[in-house]
């Protein structure tokens, strides 16, 4: 069966919450794509469960590093993945607490079997020779994910360095998650936007390309491109596990869905509003802004999680 995909554009995260980005319909290697447009969310529409499968149990994660990533940049990503469930939280607020909200609000209510859901780093592969070139289509992103040979229930992260241009990156999307429904695995893509489109895909660590030109927040790990990528990646991981095949948790039309974190786009702390990330924490030593700490000591700015029980966006700070 063909893969299915969703998009997320940081350029639109500072727009009014009533605007959404239509997803790419089934981005396989042989199917046409739907054009992106803005649409209004129907009044009274809620992010609800539609009966489909979520990822549960042990979720093996494979990382595909496409291009050149320094050991420190890789460590930022790996610490995030391992901090979700594999290691105990070493500080508060933590990455593990963010994941606990997703698990409680979404996964525990929809999993076919009881028990915890753990995210486990299974493998890493580096493609430093840019085997598909430095200008990729979304079909090629899917190729890279499939090349990791994921098993059913797995999650593949395809990460691009700052030299790689992906179709629509920075103009209509900052990341994507999708799935091969036949094989039963999901994938998520995000890229380093520091040199290409920081105003769209590295906000709030870069000045926005439109709207008020407020001073950007300092990146929590001192890497604007990768710290910005982590914001997108966290949102895509949340969507991939809670709505992997477009029939689980979402709001609106199936092909124009808001999900666990994209429903709270641009919200990172209390008091947030379009163009303002909210009241987040600041590292006294580095000046970096964050709202979660990883078990390995890295800090992150993670997106808020929509909680229908409130209803509203649940932030860590």
From TrEMBL:
Q: Which GO terms describe its cellular component?
A: apoplast
Identify the stretch annotated as signal peptide in this record.
1-30
Keyword Glycosyltransferase on entry: no
Q: Which Pfam families match?
A: Phi_1
Its keywords, alphabetically, are: Apoplast, Secreted, Signal
Which family does the UniProt entry place this protein in? Belongs to the EXORDIUM family.
Entries under PANTHER family matching the protein: OS06G0220200 PROTEIN (PTHR31279:SF40), PROTEIN EXORDIUM-LIKE 5 (PTHR31279)
Q: What is this protein called?
A: Protein EXORDIUM
- Species of the source: Panicum virgatum
């Amino acid at each position: 069966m063909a893969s299915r995909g969703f998009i997320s554009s940081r350029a639109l995260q500072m727009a009014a919450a009533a605007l959404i980005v239509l997803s790419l319909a089934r981005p396989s290697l042989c199917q046409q794509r739907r054009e992106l447009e803005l649409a209004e969310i129907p009044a009274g529409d809620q992010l609800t469960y539609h009966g489909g499968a979520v990822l549960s149990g042990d979720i093996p994660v494979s990382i595909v590093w496409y291009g050149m990533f320094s050991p420190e940049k890789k460590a930022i990503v790996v610490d995030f993945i391992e901090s979700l469930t594999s290691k105990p939280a070493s500080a508060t607020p933590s990455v593990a607490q963010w994941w606990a909200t997703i698990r409680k609000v979404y996964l525990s209510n929809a999993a076919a079997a009881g028990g915890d859901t753990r995210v486990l780093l299974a493998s890493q592969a580096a493609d430093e020779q840019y085997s598909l070139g430095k200008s990729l289509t979304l079909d090629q992103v899917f190729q890279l994910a499939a090349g990791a040979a994921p098993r059913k229930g797995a999650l593949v992260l395809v990460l691009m360095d700052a030299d790689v241009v992906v179709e629509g990156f920075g103009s209509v999307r900052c990341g994507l998650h999708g799935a091969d429904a036949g094989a039963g695995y999901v994938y998520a893509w995000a890229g380093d936007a520091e040199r290409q489109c920081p105003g769209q895909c590295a906000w709030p660590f870069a000045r926005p390309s439109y709207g008020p030109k407020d001073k950007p927040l300092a990146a929590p790990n001192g890497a604007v491109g990768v710290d910005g990528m982590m914001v997108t990646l966290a949102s895509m991981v949340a969507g991939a596990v809670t709505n992997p095949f477009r029939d689980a948790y979402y709001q609106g039309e199936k092909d124009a869905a808001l999900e666990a974190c994209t429903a709270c786009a641009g919200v990172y702390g209390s008091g947030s509003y379009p163009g303002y990330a909210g009241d987040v924490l600041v590292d006294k030593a580095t000046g970096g802004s964050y709202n979660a700490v990883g078990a390995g000591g890295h800090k992150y700015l993670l997106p808020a999680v929509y909680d229908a029980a409130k209803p509203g966006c649940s932030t860590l700070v």
